[in-house]
Write a structure and sequence with these properties.
The protein is 42% helix and 17% strand. It has 336 residues and is α/β, with parallel strands linked by helices. The strands form four sheets. It has a seven-stranded parallel sheet with strand order 3-2-1-4-5-6-11, with helices on both faces. 50% of the residues are buried. The structure holds nicotinamide-adenine-dinucleotide (NAD). Belongs to the NAD(P)-dependent epimerase/dehydratase family. Keywords: Carbohydrate metabolism, Isomerase, NAD. Pathway: Carbohydrate metabolism; galactose metabolism.
Length: 336
Amino acid sequence: MTWLITGGTGYIGAHVARAMVAAGERVVVLDDVSSGFPERLPAGVPLVRASVQDRDVVDATLAEHGVTGVIHLAAKKQVGESVEQPLTYYRENVHGLTVLLEAVAAAGVRRFVLSSSAAVYGMPDVDLVTEDTPCVPMNPYGETKLAGEWLVRATGRAHGISTACLRYFNVAGAAAPELADVGVFNIIPMMFEKVTAGEPPLIFGDDYDTPDGTCVRDYIHVEDLADAHLAAARWLTAQDGSRDLTLNVGTGQGVSVREMADLVLGVSGRRDLTPVVEPRRAGDPARVVASCERATRELGWRARHGIDAMVGSAWEGWCRRHPEARGVAGEGARSA
Ligand SMILES: NC(=O)c1ccc[n+]([C@@H]2O[C@H](COP(=O)([O-])OP(=O)(O)OC[C@H]3O[C@@H](n4cnc5c(N)ncnc54)[C@H](O)[C@@H]3O)[C@@H](O)[C@H]2O)c1
């Protein structure tokens, strides 16, 4: 097998490339480097700098590298931006996927893995979200992920391609500081940003129907997520004829926003700061925690890392890019 990883210079894609190479798989990466960093790639992995929307380059890459399976991570991923720029999100995440699938079907590639998201579920009103929980996305980003799943499954059935759609929950942590996420769009880096500025982390709403009143989420270490891709790739390789699999990838454990604030204050040495409670934000579900039974049953995969490892490794990555964060922590610890 040779696996094409689209978006392989991104935060998650680079971890997937690393896990695949470590497991002895042959990989090639196609990435337009719009939000990725080539230096994240393991040594020796070929990088084709192009958009998945460039059909000629995709065709040539599949042929030249003898690609037999695709792991498609290339996408835009910011919920707020998707509300302001839905056309960009549909073009990148849905049209881009269509072009890629056309090339895959034409080349006779028989294995395809799609990066999907818990955003497809919207505001699930259940204790544990299973893959059968209704999908009601609340924003264009989630819509493009759900439409992407439909496209992948329909194409798989029509063209004899085995497919896996992996619905990631909240991805966190890093295998090494230089592989960390650089965005400040979710709770952990947003809290890191606050404490680095010497300010308390913010909690949006503490009157939800949850044990401590704050929202509860399921965080998955990016290394565990990368292993789930490897397991899915191996599962697809083992199938005779076309099969499709849709899987949640999380831990099944909920962590509240207040618990997360405590973890961030601990790792940053800023226990002198007290989180500030702000009003609820529109569209935040109270609790989104995955049931991961299907992934364990089908792939034999389960998450190994806990929340401390996620926050600790994310902090190391943050401090690499924000060396002042360690200084601020030192000052906080001295003045506390
Ligand atoms: N980070 C999360 O918490 C999370 C959660 C659920 C799902 N996802 C999905 O995981 C995937 C990867 O996310 P990430 O966090 O690594 O984001 P990222 O922005 O770090 O990585 C995306 C990569 O895709 C590349 N890319 C974007 N558009 C492209 C195009 N048209 N052609 C070729 N390359 C292109 C970018 O340069 C980047 O390297 C995305 O599909 C995202 O929707 C992420």
